[in-house]
User: Fold these one by one.
Assistant:
Number 1:
Amino acid sequence: MIENMSDIQLGIIVTICGLVIVFAILAILVAVIGASGAINTGVANSNNKKEKPAVENKQAPAPKIVKPAVSDGIDDETVAVITAAVYSMYAGTGVTPRVSFIKSADKKRPAWASAGIAQNIKAF
Amino acid sequence: MLNSFLNTLVGVYYDSGIASFFVGEGWKNLVMIAVACGLFYLAIKKGFEPLLLLPIAFGMLLANLPGAGLYHPEIWDTANAQYWIKDAAGFHILAGNVLQHGGLLDILYLGVKLGIYPPLIFLGIGAMTDFGPLIARPSSFLMGAAAQLGIFAAFFGALALGMTGPEAGSIGIIGGADGPTAIFVTSKLAPHLLGPIAVAAYSYMALVPLIQPPIMRALTTKKERLIRMNVPRTVSKTEKIMFPIIITIVVALILPDAAPLVGMLMFGNLLKESGKTDRIAKAAQNELMNIVTIFLGTTVGATTNGASFLNFDTLKIVAMGLVAFCIGTAGGVLLGKLMCFLSGGKINPLIGSAGVSAVPMAARVSQKVGQEEDPGNFLLMHAMGPNVSGVIGSAVAAGVLIKILTPLV
């Protein structure tokens, strides 16, 4: 049928159909994504309400702080930074880490080389 | 002996590419080499989309060196029965024959003809894109839809200029401001126009900062340009993971022809957002994207031989491409004004122009024009919503054009 249309008819049909279909599909996406956002926000809000009492209970016992064993040559500031980094990695996971010891890394290999090796041999 | 020596030299000369410039339409190859050099200047010196324009220009150069044998236009002529068969579904390439007899660029060009490269580019784009601003404000989808008005206006205009339906569809898609989409549609509807359309599409994408601002200023008032928008809500990780899955299912079910582009775009995005596939997300946005960009650009450039590029159709493509961009910008801004009115002045209409999917250039233009009036007005993240929705919108428009116009090929 489209093969027998004149140029004007073809132009009108394609333009109208094209705009209607594009707007319709994107309007459907507005509705679907908007609904999914509203559901997700509602679920997140109800989870926050449930978690509040549990958080208060967890906060009651303060963790016992054990000073880590530190090898020679590492100052207190470095220990504090390393400890803070370890704690921030576990934040939100429910796990409370404990730094037992801090010692200097093998200085034979540069830190960047070690990082590159670690990334390349990391498992899938 | 002297005669043999001279005859040998003359023979070498007549077999060389230089002699070919003076035989028949060989002068067109010389002109195309000059055009390629002009594109080198634009890409390298002026920085016009160099990642694509440089490979396109070099492909153009390689294909117009006579006797190099890298690209054979006669292979891609559907009338050539050695390489094409026709059935009820249309023309199909005999890829095995191309692999046996084609040059390097002919073989690589199969990735364009079989519709492989553009979806892979979209995979990389999806892995680089943050859809957070769009998820936070889903109404931005409509601005992305309005900006596709340029595609259909240019389609109409191209028909009026005497192009066939499939050719007009390929020209119109330039208005989507999306290179891979333009190449995907053109390779299916009007492959003989692939070279000029690709050059026009990428050149206009680089000219977005010049084309859009006058239209944006003309269609908005100073009061509208001064509107500061509220900070969008925070989008959760779950929403960012659900988004690509939902989009793929909805779009592919309604319009299957858009599935290759939209599906790969969302696949790349899911690789990024899942957080579990970091290595392959990085490969998609780096190694894969770069390799496919090289192959796509070079082979598209190779299709620009003198016969296909140096004719009046190229001027029509350039003119209609500009029309498509301008009307697309206007469409997005006008819908932005409507949304501004309906929202009681909460939406700045300038972000509507970002619905043309030149990511992130169009969003930066919205930011820049807004800051001309109010240096403290930061529209960039608000404009990213319509900007990325334009990518989806142009892919949907591409699916519509392919669906409706393929029977006319």
Note: The two ends of chain B are 59 Å apart (CA to CA).
Number 2:
Amino acid sequence: MVMKKKKPLFECGQDWTFELLEKTWVEIARIADEDLKLDYYKPQLEVISSEQMLDCYAATGLPIMYKHWSFGKEFLRNHKAYKEGQMGLAYEIVINSDPCIAYLMEENNMTMQCLVMAHASAGHSAVFKGNKMFKQFTDAGAIIDYLLFAKNYLSMCEEKYGEAEVESVLDSCHALMDYGVDRYTRRGKVSAAEEQKRAIARLEQQRIDYDPIWDKTVPKKDASEKEDKWPPEPEDNILYFIEKYAPDLPSWKREVIRIIRKISQYFYPQSQTKVLNEGFATFTHYYIMDKMYKEGLITSGSWLEFITSHTGVVFQPDFDKKYFSGMNPYALGFAIFMDLKRMCEAPTDEDRQWFPSIAGNSDWLSVVKDAMENYKDDTFIQQFMSPKVMRDFRLFAVKDDADSDYVEISAIHNDQGYIDIRNAMADSYNRGNWVPDIQVDEVHVLGDRTLFLKHTPYLGRPLHDGLAKETIAHVANLWEFDVVIETHDDVGNVDIEYLAHGPKKVSNKPMFK
Amino acid sequence: MSGYTIVDRRANGKGKSLDNRQKFLKRVRESVKKALPDLINSRKLKDIAGDGGIIHIPQKNIGEPSFRHGQGGIRESVRPGNKEYNTGDRFRKPNGAQGSGGGKKGSNNPDPTEDEFTIEISREEFLDYFFEELELPDLVKTGLKQVTTTKWHNAGFSTTGSPAKLDRSRTLRKSQSRRLSSRAPYKKKLAEAEADRMALIVSMSWTEEMEERDQELRVSLQAQIDELDKVIEGLKRKIANVPFIDPVDLRYHSMVAEEIPVTSAVMVCIMDNSGSMGEFEKTLSRKFFALLYMFLARKYEKITLRFIYHTTYAKEVDEDEFFNSRESGGTVVSTALELLKKMLKEDYADGNTNIYVCQCSDGDNWGHDNELCKELLIDDILPHVQYFAYTQVGNDPGYQSDLWPSYEIVANAHKHFQMNTVHVDADIYPVFKELFEKKSK
């Protein structure tokens, strides 16, 4: 299709100006709206210096964050790596917020700023707004205000209760960040306090009804009738549980826990959609820059610079290369999205066999957008990774059984291996892979208030010993009484694995008034 | 979608991370302090004293733990870049190594594999932590006043100065370079002009045989030659006008004043170099003194250090010899104390200097000497010093040395005489700390 060539917005290597940024964004938005029909949050483009970029990095990109030493460590680590040339500062940091804040480094030239805008403010922003994980777990409009509240609240606590005290709580909360997310909607109903009252009442009644003669003459019922366990259902949001039910915690500490919980919740979808998010943003920037080039809005020099940068970003080193550090989410995500488009526009027989509804589909855009909106990393890969992508990356699956002396190649990129590879790859993005399944099982409410956590091993994997010991100490720090981790394996054996003593001993008060 | 905002945040301060960095360093400080005794034990002391810029901080205090899986179970991971493997290929795991589960995690795992975390602390910062709670006691006399004298020394060249300070050769060199560069363009033009002129003259000579009607040519050529002559004249004048010497060429020797402080504190280090001190004991005392040296160098820049070592005779030496000497011999401790007494009388008789003494020995002494040492201390030395620290080195904790009982008598009577023993490397730092713990609040 012959397009009428327009005048380039800027030359290759040209510096940016605010006016150019505006003009360029207008064109990017036009293509995003018309061609890609993207729905994204209104962009807020912020120009910052590279030092400020380092600050951003350390604070996970959020413009406001509470103070903690771990961010200082991150800052120093990045600062050192950047100083030593080991790390180029990413040119994109973008925040899931409404308006969507994206940072532009002042050192970038206009071509790079154009790329960042397309990638972040069109691509990522569309994912933030459209993907169901984000819709379910985050409130983009409220996060910045909430962070402001959080930061001020924590500062106030520091002043009132001392830095050390606050740091201790924060450290422990950070250790449990992964266990602070409500992944499933809570079942409303009887509040746990009410539930507890009932359990105590029942026990009281049993005590009143106790008749020694009856007890000693009538054969006892099966001992498997346990008294009511509390909580009745296991709770996987450990931070939530502690916040609500820690017997003796002052309310400011509960509020701190709540804050960390909320922030952890905010970040949860991002951890589950790395491949999808980066893949889609890269796909978007690629389409937009390419279109701009075809329309003559950027020069071939700019286009070349863009392609060089883009190629670097989606580069996937082989497993045996020095720089290999896992699958590059940009590479994988971009490959899958581009492949979806290809399958629609130029399907092969293999495509028709594997993806009958996608191959030859006349509307690639809706296919791509459906993938972006309704999936997360593991389901995205499970659903959409095609044999061609597997061949392009020459993927192979390695099985490592701890009980065996050998590792085994369990699948390679051939007909017999595609399904296995896809399953294994999808599974590796499953959260259960790297966050052990640990839930609140029981609390001895009438006893010593010990918190029993239940660990259900994933595929036979034990907990990392050293880390478990350190982390359980943090749990005890928050719960303030003893904490135990029991491992329940799949044949019903229960093993006490770890025990940590809390700072407090039980008094004779009941747990709930 | 219309609507956008562009904001310039560069004016907003950077250093949002300053607070966080401070918090982190505070935490690190505890780590560093805890790591110190171990650092002394290993030979790293020298490295730190040398030029150690990067200190390794062990993970403990700055790790961020969370529940994670350990080794074990079944893992199936997918890698890119297969070259020659086939389904079913098996590889023996290396002994004791982890399987493929190990370090390469799925990239949506937010925790990077953490090797030992290293941060860069400058040597100064490190030594600051190290010596934070230590100080020289009773720094009372006249305090460490910063009395200074001025000394002049050469510091390169300047374009101004007095005629006596003129550096002639340098000036002439500058002048030559100026002349070269100033004249160069004119000379170039001159060469061109003269070449042109020559060309014209040659053309002129060819026209000699011309007839009358070509006289015009001759005239114009002549005119051009005349023009050129003028230009050449001008150029030559310009060249001649470049001055031989110009004020811009002048160079003078430059002098700079340096302030040299007159110290009002002295630390005298006495080491027993005799044969009874084995390699082990000598190393211990050397480490002790190295620590002392670093401490003083760090905290009291303007302190003078004097070194005495002794066998059967005492000798004042410089730092190098003190630490590296291989001498050996018998032991007569009093010789060192005699030398010290002499030093006090000769150099510090005015009573304006804070004097500290640190003695290291294994306690062995020539039998009759102990009484003498005791007397020297009580009569001649202790009255004049702020603090005397005696450290007995030796790896036998039960050892009753010759010197010890005599010194004990002194210690009991004098508060500013402290005795301690060091048996192993690990003792050095605690003993050092005890000797120099901050007593003031």
Note: Residues 223 and 229 of chain B are 10 Å apart (CA to CA).
Number 3:
Amino acid sequence: MNELLLDIVFLLAAAVLVVPLTQKVGLGSVLGYLIAGLAIGPHGFKFITATESIAQVSELGVVFLLFIIGLELDPKRLWKLRIPIFGMGLAQVLLVCALTTGLGLLCGLSWPTGVIVGLGFAMSSTAISTQILKERGMLASAGGSSAFSILLFQDIAVIPILALLPWLAGAPQPTNAQPAWKIVLVVAFVIFAGHYLMRHVFRLVASAHLREVFTALSLLMVVGLAALMQSLGVSMALGAFLGGVLLATSEYRHAIETDIEPFKGLLLGLFFMAVGMSVDIPTIFLHPEVVLGLVVSVIVLKIVAHALLALVFRLGRKEIPFFSLVLSQVGEFAFVLFAAATGLGLLSAEMGAELSAAIAISMAVTPLLMAIYDRFIAPRLARSHDMSHEVMVNEHPEVLIAGFGRVGQIIGRLLYANRIRATVLDHDPDQIELVRRFGFKVYYGDATRLDLLESAGAGTAKILVVAVDDSDASLLIVDLAQQHFPHLRIVVRARNVAHVYDLMDRKVEIWERETFDSSLRLGTEVLRMLGWAPYQAVRAGFKFRKHNLKLLFEMASKRGNQRELVSVTKQAREDLEKMFAGEGEQLRRDDEGWVIHPEGR
Amino acid sequence: MEKKSFSTLLIVAHPYLEKSRANRAVVQAVQDVPRITVRRLYDLYPYFNLDVAAEQELLLRHDLIVMQHPLYWYSMPALLKLWVDEVLQSGWAYGPGGDQLRGKQFLLSITAGGAKQGYSPEGSNRFDMETLLSPWNQTVHLCHMKWHTPKILHASIHASAEQLQAHALDVRQALIHFAREGSLP
């Protein structure tokens, strides 16, 4: 146990010390984790020597990442992207593989070895590339989504490639993979369960109102799926991705994402540290020119291949540099492939080690390449102002509505009828269930949580409607919004006068007392029934409203002193009396001033 | 043989009809005109939320349209103006394909606070009534309706009860004539 604790301490310490440094210097967090891992690993200062277990746990980082990606995906969009995925993706793998095999033959490698190396080299790092794309918000651009489609295809391709290996080795070897029919059955079950069962399970857990249990369920889903897929010999990450996609349309999406995100962050960091630890320094220094040569040639080869692809698939000249660079590294799946290949005798142990080193170094190079892109290439492209990258999907709502009760629903429906799709948050699963049946997209979540507001899009939205029924929660949300999203315009449902005063203190400008106008309408009807002409009754209502509001503001400025002395209820009664007295007076005065138009006009 | 009778739609637009003497007198007087529909605009739409479809439907169903209103600032009360703006739509009342009101009769019946003499180039209002009512005139013309000489009650503020009654009965008489003959006297 001591060993494990010590390992954890070293890992955390390394992360905490190194990553902020590399981030500050502009080299990004990924490189920081890689360096941290290298430093504390068996080839560095040897703080950690048993890397096996760490590597296994760190794989979960990629799993979680893919889960979140699946969660944020729109299945419709996935289907829409089937051409880039199977068109461009396939082309990329084949092209890189072909080029590498050709190069390998020139260097005297056998063609099976060349193909293996080529397939491995074709893989790009999902973790690194997606991180880069997400950081820059480029997932929706033409280049970004093409890159992502290629990565998706690579994920899918790993399975047949692994199956291909024994055939290349020339002898039938037992593999980990289960028979195909079993896999299909399990995947079908997962899809069925995900679509029909999970929603009810989540709702059940959510209605217990115990947040940590909900978090546990989310984690259980991800890790459980990963375990299931691993037992079938299928890529864990792909299974997690599938799970994420299944939940992408669920109302619990934002809440799950919010819960999983911190785990993903840490585990992914751990993954990169594990990669850093695996960089075999002695081997590199044995034949430094081999490893260096591999790194240079694979990166150059991939950049060229990708640039060719970009031209053929007509991505647009602006997109070519970024697209070619972002996928230029060799990915984590290559580790898996080369390990399997070495096990089958297709690669010598020495070669396997050199390749692994090359992979790790190529990963480390990517952030540097990105830095070069940012400093030299991007400014040049930005100069000629061409909005050629169309944003494919608008994930960012203009309006957030917190609370979908009677008030939120009216607002939501008004917007909906005018084709404005607000993102709605509510924390009552039964309410959500009810409303969903009428076709509304409501997300489960507690809007007083900053991270939930963040993941629902508060950072990019224009307007936040606070329509929750609890005034304390309402004020909390207002505070959070003003503090963290100062650009957001806030519209608030006010429970009562006390709530209004609290909102005024916070300089909220747009609020409405939830029952005021409806009550006034009813009162106007009563006047009508008593014989008033309708227009008179309505105008009386307008007058009342105007003076009421004026009194409200007057009392707001005066209340500070008296509140300490008088109890709240007494104050409220006094306020009301004042209001009536003030109102009667005003109306009489106005009544006299109002007369039918004098002669001649 | 039963003679065909003609229908009348009378729209009265007065924000305080219960406080009015002249306009109320007319509205009360025409209650027994055959096939008349009286609509009090400010009662129907106190929030100014016109139901355009309903208004158009009513127009279609009647042969004579009568507008009864006080002259406010040489024009009509605001709600009636909104009615004109929103109900008389292009493609429905006027313009290409706007034929729905063609052939209908239109009678303007107004009350004015000022005396008749004031409504002349030499008078305090500087313009005569015909000029001041030309917007209505042209509106009716553009909607392919037949414009009739307006019924005008002058000096409504100081008019005596008898004078008001006389004017109201005059309007009533004209409408009864229309109901029978399909034309105005």
Note: Residues 385-394, 587-601 of chain A have pLDDT under 50 and may be disordered.
Number 4:
Amino acid sequence: MNRYEYLEKIDQLLITLPYDERREIMYDYEEHFKEALKDGKTEEEIIIALGSPEKIASQYATKLTVVDKAKPEQPNNHVKKPIPKRPVKKGNGPVEIILLLFVAIIVGSILLGPYLGLWGIVIAFFVCGIVFVFLGFTLLLSSIVSVPISFISLPFLFEYPVLLFAGSIALICIGGLILIATYYIVKALCYMTYYLIQWFIKLVRGY
Amino acid sequence: MNIQFKKGVIELCLLSLLSKKDYLGYELVRELCDNFKLLEGSIYPLLRRLINEGYLDTFMTEPEDGSPKKYYRITSKGIEARKTLLDQWNNLTTRINNLIKEDCYNE
């Protein structure tokens, strides 16, 4: 190898460095050759004393000096830091979706009965409440008016009008409370159903 | 000699030389490599790093008789760094010397 081939090789190996820095570095080695030749050394001797181009180039890649071990590494723009990969969002593939739907149908058909039963209870509460309130008002009316309402056959109650009066009010209150309770139960059931569906969709989708 | 230790010693030598006067790159290579067994190609990367750390900087002279030459000189930050390295060196050598002295009692 002659001087120009040697220097060319080093320059090539430093190609990842910024242009200015590379020029400065190459200047050093060109000057070194000039001075060493003045000293009477041959090109071959100079090349051997300097070392291989690879060894030289590799020393420009490391960053820390011994003094600054405590300091954080200065980012050297020719050394690429690995870019941290963001976790890729992966949905479920078609196979998983079909499997999950299959399982869902089976589980769903088992749970459907009890679920409808819950709604049945809610409806029963509701009807109960309405009936109580209605009945209550009717009896109240009859106790005030003192006229037995034809479709209600509770003869003993009319012996004691006060009892009828109090009883009807009680009935209205109980009916009211049942209706209020029904309202909250319906609300809770709707929320539950909504979130259940959301969870299920996420499960099938995979994310 | 372990490579990090060697690098530290060479840094100390370079900074010490430059604390006395400014040098050409080639002169520094000659000073170190004639005295110690070192690859001449290891000096320039080290000089580059010392520049990047701010311990050295360079300037060009324009002599009438020839081409412009690039000189290295130490900065105030470099003088501080040299002091730190020198303290570490003295610390280490004192401890080693004590250890070595103790060995003599067995003879």
Note: Strands of chain B lie at 23-24, 56-61, 69-74.
